[in-house]
Amino acid sequence: MTGSAPADGPLRTLLLGYGLGGRVFHAPLLEADPRYSLDVIVTSDPERARAASLAYPRAAVVPSAEAALALAGELDLAVVSTPPATHAPLGLAALRAGLHVVADKPFAHSPQAARDLLETAAAAGKALSVFQNRRWDGDFLTLKGLIERGDLGTVSRFESRMESFKPSVTKAWKREAGTDDGGGILFDLGPHLIDQALQLFGPAEPAYAEVHSRREGGGPDDDVFVVLQHASGVQSHLSMNSLAPQPGERFRVTGSTAAWTKRGVDPQEAQLDAGMLPGDPGYGEEEPAEWGVLGTAASAVAVPTEAGRYQEFYAGFAAAVLEGGSLPVDPADSLRGLEIIRQIHAGI
Q1: How far apart, in whole angstroms, are the C-alpha atoms of residue 237 and residue 221?
Q2: Which of 68, 108, 170, 314 has its CA 20 to 30 A from that of 79?
Q3: Which pLDDT does position 173 carry in this prediction?
Q4: Burial class, 301, CB count within 10 angstroms (exposed 0-12 / middle 13-18 / buried 19+)
Q5: How far, rounded to the nearest angstrom, does the alpha carbon of residue 168 sit from its chain's CA centroid?
Q6: Average of pLDDT values for 237-249?
Q7: DSSP E strands, 43-154
């Protein structure tokens, strides 16, 4: 399902939020694609407002969603990049104002809120998609190719980790948000890791989980381990931890004839943060020292990492709206990820 194309010109876009997501991911990717114009940015933070005005002088910077949605008649798309508890309410408001919607993950704080979004989008005839950008990480694309070519044989175990060392939590909402509001690392990184596992190996149910809050004084979960059992027979072991002084391997995938191990993280976030854009020389490319290794203990070779391509999300979304193509991310996929997260929080 898609909406109709604008009468003329590119998709006129409202960006709700100018924190890390809005500033580093959405605004640069929108600016780099000629099928979009970044017309309105919402932030109530004066310093972020100044930064947004300097970076995107053609955009109006307003302090509230209400002020922005008052301009909905002059816009086509709302991109929601705000704290998780606000994703569903803002997405609903934008859909009801007649806008297509792209939402950051998790695109809702509960499965029911996600279903309300899907139903509202369908009733309004508007496109709704979720920014599952990790589908276009270079290492994930590389792994997908290895599996499709049969280079691993039959995969039995998929290990995927996103770990960092962040003893201090600087954002108030991350310190305070509970699971009912989409808080904690399982809601933060789980949508990425679960989505990648489901994309690679198909439907799954949570079989086991460990959910911990390690920080002194408690707070939202910050150390989580999940086992998914896929109907295909593969087991996914997913780890997310923001208190890991030494991060583990990003991927370790075990097959019947070979394994593939990979360290390091996709470079696109750091590149976008530094001002690099898709199309610039070297964008999305990883240094050879970071390439994963394929084979056995006795014989393993480095495999070049494919260039990451976050820009393909917005290219696909524009094609869906303007040309009637399929959405780059079906929100029903992200809904399934939310259902798994809620199962885990409920004790499976």
Answers
A1: 18
A2: 170
A3: 63
A4: exposed
A5: 23
A6: 96
A7: 60-62, 77-80, 100-103, 128-130
The residue assigned the tokens 């307003």 is 62
Res 2: pLDDT: 44
Query: In angstroms, rounded to a whole number, what is the distance separating the alpha carbons of residues 284 and 269?
Result: 9
Over the stretch 58-109, which tens digit does the pLDDT of each residue have? 999 999 999 999 999 999 999 999 999 999 999 999 999 999 999 999 999 9
Edge-to-edge strand order for the sheet containing 11-16? 60-62, 36-42, 11-16, 77-80, 100-103, 128-130
Please state the φ and ψ torsions of residue 256, each to the nearest 5 degrees: -75, -20
DSSP of 235-283, one letter per residue? Answer: EEEEEEESB-SS---SEEEEESS-EEEE-S--SHHHHHHTT--TTSTTT
Tokens 């694309």 belong to residue? 141
Q: Looking at residue 165, what DSSP letter applies? A: B
Ramachandran bin of 186, using left for φ above 0, alpha for ψ from -120 to 50, beta for the remaining angles? alpha
How does residue 7 score in pLDDT terms, banded at 50, 70 and 90? very low
For the chain, how far is it from start to end, CA to CA, in angstroms? 33
Tokens 């014989």 belong to which residue?
A: 299
Alpha-carbon distance of 166 to 237, in angstroms, equals: 22
Given a cut of 80, whether residue 198 has pLDDT beyond it is: yes
- Half-sphere exposure (Cβ direction) of 169: Cα atoms closer than 13 Å: 22
Residue 199, amino acid: Q
